[in-house]
Amino acid sequence: MSDTLSKIVALVISVFLLFIFPVENLLARQDDITRIIVLNETTEFVDSVRNLGYITPLMYIQFRESLSATGNVYDITMEHIHFSIDPVYTDPVDMTSFQHDYKINRRITYTEEILERLFPGDSMAENNNCRYHLSAGDIFRVKVVNLNKTPSAKVQQMLLMAELPAGRIIVSYGGMVRDENN
Amino acid sequence: MKITDIAVLFVFITMPFVLLMRIKADNLKYAEYRSTVLNRYLDTAVEDASYAMTIRGIGDKTFISREKAVEAFFNTLYANFGIMHVETAKHALRAYIPVIAIIDYDGWWIYSMETYTNSKGEKEREMVWKPKKPYVYEKNGYLYIFTLDDYVRVIDLKTKSAYEGKRRDIAYILPDSEIIRDEELFEQVRKRTIIESIKEDVNAEINEHNKYAKLYGITYHFSPPLISDGDWQQNIEDIGILAFFQGLPLGLGGERFNSYALGAARIVRKNHYFIQQDMNGIFYYHRDNCPVLTAKDRIYDTRQECALTGAFPCHACNP
Hints:
The structure holds two protein chains of two kinds.
Chain A: H1 2-52, E1 54-55, H2 57-68, E2 74-89, E3 98-110, H3 111-118, H4 124-127, E4 132-133, E5 139-146, H5 151-160, E6 170-176
Antiparallel strand pairs in A: 1-4, 2-3, 2-5, 5-6
Chain B: H1 3-53, E1 54-56, E2 62-64, H2 66-81, H3 87-94, E3 99-104, E4 107-117, E5 123-129, E6 135-139, E7 142-146, E8 151-156, E9 161-166, H4 167-170, H5 178-181, H6 183-215, H7 229-235, E10 240-250, E11 255-264, E12 273-277, E13 283-286, E14 299-300, H8 303-308, E15 312-313
Parallel strand pairs in B: 13-15
Antiparallel strand pairs in B: 1-2, 3-4, 3-10, 4-5, 6-7, 7-8, 8-9, 10-11, 12-13, 12-14
């Protein structure tokens, strides 16, 4: 009896060691590599936006495509903090109430609005000339999180028999916009 | 052999590979992190250099100080590496910078390693400024000397006479020159000339640097990085500084850092804003390319100036 039991235990341990552990390890490394690629692509996209001062539909599509080449689905959040320079009026309707002063206000634009500006039409030809402009001194940042469960997360879930959160590849990068172009 | 023995044997065999892979992945991660950090260092250094190199003189004239640019560039780099007071480390770091170029209004300078004989007759190796080179293009018996905007000098090689001025102004003097006549072609040739001449010079200097890098014990083979056309177009719009940083080892994985950065001093090209009254009588200020903008008669240089006249930022172009 005890012999059978030990055999079963031995079998379980060896299955774990021979199959599951190498697979899990391989997939975890794959996640590491993916993270590096995503970081690379994100810095490239953000840096080019910061240097150019605008986003074109093509830039965004290329960024998306290079991310999806890793085999995961990502949620890309963009954030544009614009420092708008507004004149000071005590009563905005009354032109004479101008205080001869200005204030710097922050206006934040998020992903949805930026994408609306980039892709207003349905066809690509309509969108080709669209650009989202940023001003020098603004802040632009991008956060990329994977939406699907990566293979390594799935294997770990199976092993731990617990629900794990999907977000494993989280990259956030941003900075000041250096230049503006037309 | 029992099944447990097989399992243990398997672990013994695979463990080294698993560990190796983990170490490799860690190295790769570290190298990636390092290169992001170094890129930031380089960007800041170039930004500081472009800020430091413009000097405002009498009568609102601006000058470019190459020495100040290089000084600011290296100081920021040293500060970021934490080697402000370590002479040997400074020396070692400089060897990873094969070339710095300053793109001026009417030509470019190259700062690179050179061997020369000093006054005592000894050979010296040092980073020096090479003479300024103009943006020259020759076609159909004309020699064009371009600048960063539409100001151009044309030399007729047959008659040996020179013409100088904005493209528009000299177009009627030189009716048989297609480049001067056609604005679009002029822009194309001008940009191409500037890009190609700087590119060629920089690439040659980087290749040349291999000779000196060996003396510093750097085994990296310096080769010009690929700079996309878009980047070049962007970079030649204004006076700026272009610096290359190559060959610094990143971690233990054998990866090397290879990057470049460009900072513009923003003198030639300026942004303009225009104020226009809308239908309700409210004043708004717009960007140059705003779709709402119709009359470009009230021009301002900064957004602050616009706001001080009481104008609001336009909602369409969001200046």
